[in-house]
Design goal:
Number of helices: 11
EC number: 2.3.1.-
Protein name: GNAT family N-acetyltransferase
CATH topology of the largest domain: Aminopeptidase
Number of domains: 2
Distance between the termini: 50 Å
Strand content: 25-35%
Keywords: Acyltransferase, Cell shape, Cell wall biogenesis/degradation, Peptidoglycan synthesis, Transferase
Pfam family, one: Acetyltransf_6
CATH architecture of the largest domain: 3-Layer(aba) Sandwich
Number of strands: 13
CATH class of the largest domain: Alpha Beta
Structural class: alpha+beta
Radius of gyration: 21 Å
Shape: globular
Family: Belongs to the FemABX family.
Order of helices and strands: EHHEEEEHEHEHHEHHEEEHEHEH
Length: about 350
């Protein structure tokens, strides 16, 4: 008999128990209650997890819920989207009956909660978009790069790394660059990372959202202590010139957030990636996901850089659904009228009405 339940962080133990029932190959850190605790504390919304079960079958879908405010609505509406990273439903299997029952139960849930709209960033390695194709509009967004870690380091070096990447890594080694891995970074260690990260975000002109508050970085190593690593690259004088936060969860390894100083030579980034691959191998990860470019463009410079470390890629897809079209259209129209300078830039954004005005 199929059953459905809504959980929040007060039920994090039960949330984790359901997550533990899903095969390792079908889940990742982005679906854990502690990962969602990070973003609820950041102020991104109230963490929820919708679960459907039937005997040994489980389908689990975490998201953040927010009230829709400021549009003089006659009733209280909310919207839902996944936390920063990858989202969507994960499951024990792509059983058609499980998908059908999940879709039915979630439709009732969204009607009861008055969910205006839903936005999802599907996991490009798990390819969990397949579970949601019957209930959401799914579109491919961009290419992402991942590395199969079954080969030995020497084989990866020859078979996967481009000659340009290998040359820059050699230059870094010749310049006596070094690395350190911190599993329990001190407050001072985290402060150094924050300074480097923010400096890099300013250099690349990142959106305001990516300047996370300081507590977020501290909480990352608090809530995800058994899954998080801080990797620093030092120059010949011992100065930290590049740094990254990495995640290891089950078989997966992820490049989460990173930065380099303004005066760091490009070799620093190449060496950082190389050392992070060594760490992933050492920790027993099977797949290292680097992510994609800054844009969906196939010639995006960041995407090209990541492809220098691996010849394998996957597609990152988005899911969108509007539950109350007339209400949504009225909000969208009002937002467009109030933000004519932003209308074209955010034309394809489902939840654009949440974007700050007069940017």
């Amino acid at each position: 008999m199929y059953k459905s339940i809504e959980l929040d962080l007060s039920n994090s133990k039960e949330w984790q128990e359901h997550l533990d029932r899903i095969p390792e190959s079908n889940k990742d850190i982005y679906y854990s209650p502690n990962y969602y605790r990070l973003y609820e504390d950041l102020g991104d919304g109230t963490a929820k997890c919708f679960v459907v079960t039937n005997g040994d079958e489980v389908a689990l879908y975490p998201f953040l819920m927010n009230s829709v405010e400021g549009y003089n609505l006659k009733e209280d509406y909310v919207d839902i989207q996944g936390a920063y990273g990858y989202n969507g439903t994960i499951y024990t299997s792509l059983n058609e009956e499980l998908i059908k029952e999940f879709d039915k139960a979630f439709a009732i849930y969204c009607s009861d909660k008055k969910v205006l709209a839903e936005f999802t960033r599907f996991h490009p390695i798990l390819e969990n978009k397949e579970f949601s194709k019957t209930r959401m509009k799914v579109t491919d967004d961009r290419e992402t790069v991942y590395l199969n870690l079954e080969q030995e380091i020497d084989e990866l070096w020859q078979d996967q790394f481009s000659s340009q990447i290998r040359n820059k890594i050699r230059k870094a080694i010749k310049k006596n660059y070094s690395s350190e891995v911190l599993t329990n970074p001190s407050p001072d260690d985290i402060e150094i990372f924050i300074a480097i990260y923010n400096e890099n975000m300013r250099m690349v002109g990142a959106d305001e959202y990516f300047f996370f508050n300081e507590q977020y970085f501290r909480d990352t190593f608090k809530y995800l202590s058994s899954n998080s690593y801080l990797l620093n690259i030092k120059d010949e004088e011992g100065n930290i010139i590049s740094s990254t936060i990495l995640f290891k969860y089950g078989k997966f390894f992820h490049y989460h957030l990173s930065g380099r100083t303004e005066d760091a030579i490009s070799w620093a980034s190449n060496y950082l990636y190389s050392e992070s691959i060594n760490l992933a191998k050492k920790l027993g990860a099977e797949v290292y996901h680097f992510g994609g470019g800054r844009t969906p463009a196939p010639d995006d410079s960041l995407l090209r850089f990541k492809k220098g470390f691996s010849k394998t890629s996957s597609i990152f897809s988005l899911g969108k659904k509007i539950y109350f079209p007339e209400i949504y259209s009225s909000i969208e129209k009002k937002w467009n009228e109030e933000n004519p300078n932003l209308e074209e830039k955010y034309r394809k954004f489902l939840l654009k009405y949440r974007i700050k005005k007069d940017l």
